[in-house]
Specification:
about 80 residues; about 5% helix; mainly beta; four-stranded antiparallel β-sheet; 6 strands
Amino acid sequence: MSVHTYAGTGSTATFDDVAGTVTFEHTHWRQPKKKRAASPWTVPVAAIEGISWREATASKPAQMRLILRGRVGYNKNDAADLNLH
């Protein structure tokens, strides 16, 4: 029974194993208005089909994206994808 929080550039992802959810909070002023307005975005763990991950490089930060059933919240444009952290 624990909560794990991962902070990134402009957003935070929180995994709550008791509630069975992942919550994204996009609060940084650099995040698009749509992402900030939809925050917090809570996803049940059961709805997750997969996770994509990109390691950080010298020019780009690391990136984690949840892939949900039916592609809920997905957008090809990273700035508009609610499941991207």
